[in-house]
Write a structure and sequence with these properties.
The radius of gyration is 23 Å and the shape is elongated. Helix content is 37%, strand content 16%. A six-stranded parallel β-sheet has the order 5-6-4-1-7-8, with helices on both faces. A six-stranded parallel β-sheet has the order 11-10-9-15-16-17, sandwiched between helices. It is an alpha/beta fold.
Amino acid sequence: MAKLTVSDLDVKSKKVLIRVDFNVPIKGGVIGNDNRMVAALPTINYVTENGGKAILFSHLGRIKTEDDKKELSLRPVAEHLAELLNKPVTFVPETRGAQLEDAINNMEDGDVLVVENTRFEDLDGKKESGNDPELGKYWASLGDVFVNDAFGTAHRSHASNVGISEAMKAEGKKAAAGYLLEKEIQFLGNAVDDPKTPFVAILGGAKVSDKIGVINHLLGKADKVIVGGGMTYTFYAAKGIKIGNSLVEEDKIELAKEIMEKAGDKLVLPVDNVVATEFNNDAPSQVAEGDIPDGYMALDIGPKSVQLFKDTLADAKTVVWNGPMGVFEMSNFAKGTLEVGKFLGTLSDATTIVGGGDSTAAVQQLGVADKLTHISTGGGASLEYLEGKTLPGIAAVSDK
């Protein structure tokens, strides 16, 4: 069923509540990376250019103590947003009450307002992240229509996404998807449910346990599933390959065996690894084929694996990549991840989709981001989508 989108709404003179994902890295009031903010601009601009009043909700970090509030106010985010939009943005340092209500009632058509961090509501009994129905209802009462554009939290049932949607719909008002959410549904959904073949998935990261659901789901859909990163060595252990001091989930070895039996030749594992004696960027390293020597740990895929992965990807028409091939945060062990990213940028007639923090960082670092079809803004959300799960934030949007 197609979802209602922001383009389907008449927003003129309406108070449009927009859930954005402005959960950006901030240190000392300075924003480290504003990609998520930039990604939300088309939806905000659509509302303001069509005479709507844009009222933005977002969370920022986790709020457990009063002290967290000082560090995690959305004020610097609102100030940065004003620069991005090149227009004034009103910031309200409250999540409810007269000050917020007055500020909203005083808005002119085309104005933008940012509400304080929705997770400030978590201090008093996790009202935001526990999806407190009263809070969702209160926030919904502040607007005429709701637009969810926060894919990064679509896998969570919070008051600011699901709560507002449900309360709006109960009142006969509309809840729509913003452009970013619409794009994520379109690309990730099509990739998994209706891919052009051959369809190759690349899964990296440390733990098999984080990706079991995704591996199992994609083995039923993809032509090949390439595995890299720390979870490789649990598969190695299951195959009887020696892994030295490499990362392993002992309690998942049996599961890895089952996955390999089910997968047959669909599962592609590294054939060589860059190994070192310690988890340190400056540790002397060497390439090991097959068994990993005692006293060594694998920290990246080796050159033959890079070639094997490129060969596997060469004729792909759809590629989904989530997770690094090695310890990407250490420059000496980032090569495998960067080589894969660079190669994806050359697949001009394939649909290439990247999701997850490290993979996204890799393609941006390489400058190939614009050569890829889609870069997902959600880590956990894109993973659950790839697992075939229904995401509550998307389910709560009105159907057309």
